[in-house]
Amino acid sequence: MRILLTNDDGIHATGLGVLQAIAAEFSTDIWIVAPEFEQSGKSRAVTLTDPVRVRDAGGNQWGVSGTPTDCVLIALRKLMVDSPPDLILSGVNNGQNLAGDTSMSGTVAAALMGTANGIPSIALSQSKNFRAAGSLDWETAKHCGIQTVRRLLEIGWPTPVTPNVNFPDCTPEEVAGVQMTRQGQRDQLTIDTHTRSDLRGKDYVWIAYNGKMSRPPEGTDLHAIYNNYVSVTPLHVDLTHGPCLRMLEEKWPS
Questions:
Q1: I need a labelling partner for 18 at 20 to 30 A (CA). Which of 24, 83, 165, 253 fits?
Q2: 207 within domain boundaries
Q3: Domain CATH code at residue 180
Q4: Is the peptide bond between 64 and the residue preceding it cis, with omega within 30 degrees of 0?
Q5: Within 13 Å and on the Cβ side, how many CA atoms surround 27?
Q6: Is residue 139 one of the residues assigned to a domain?
């Protein structure tokens, strides 16, 4: 099995090393095409107005000056065009990709691009800041990641679907299990702006998450992570809201 690894935290990120350890359980034919620098929150952005540079880092590894989606495109259209991957793993992200955050995630976007090209792709993220600010146990992602990826490969999933896997913010011994979940919805915004002034007295803005907890219902990715479960959510690129579509069809004048 040939496996392509990518992420949005950059080619030097700790989580990418964890992902390598996960992939090594399934293959020795591992390729890495990842952003040269962190590209968090880039969603499905594609670089169209600037050249994208590719640096050969040796050993089937390349650093790309663009977004996570750029990385997958370049891997499939240039670097691996004669030897495409059988599986794409994106992550392991430094932080959760849950609820509405999935639409902003570069980690998820890279996996979606792989799915769009007909290649089974999985997004993996390690939650943090639930136990304590800055807490992160990469052993949980490594241990549970191997088990979760193995089970997903055994079961399989439909071609248009991208499994979004999140690991809970706890030690491996504290993991309660694995839950199949739907994408949740937070009952309060967790992203905010912070205005500060530079040394010349001019304002600038930091955009950041404030880490607020919510009260999600059972069956959601949020509820699973809050209760120390690994969350596996099957995502689909079709964003159509079925009930609203049917309502508009019924009420729109013919």
A1: 83
A2: no
A3: 3.40.1210.10
A4: no
A5: 19
A6: yes
Q: How do residues 30-72 score in pLDDT, each as one tens digit?
A: 999 999 999 999 999 999 999 999 999 999 999 999 999 999 9
Rounded to whole angstroms, how far apart are CA atoms 186 and 101? 10
pLDDT one-digit tens code per residue, 98-152: 998 899 999 999 999 999 999 999 999 999 988 777 778 899 999 999 999 999 9
14, 95, 206 from 211: Cα distances, Å: 22, 11, 15
N-term to C-term CA, the chain: 53
Q: What are 163-191's pLDDT values in tens digits?
A: 999 999 999 999 999 999 999 987 556 67
Q: Is there a domain that residue 87 lies in? A: yes
Task: Determine the structural domain holding residue 169 and report its residue range.
Answer: 2-185+216-251
- 3-state class (DSSP) for residue 87: strand
Question: For residues 114 and 157, what is the distance between their CA atoms, to the nearest angstrom?
Answer: 14
Residue 195 CA to residue 172 CA, distance in Å, equals: 38
CB 68 within 8 A of CB 106: yes
The pLDDT of residue 169: 94
Work out how many domains the chain is built from and give that number.
Answer: 1
CB 128 within 8 A of CB 65: no
Peptide bond into 92 cis (omega under 30): yes
Whether residue 192 lies inside any domain: the answer is no
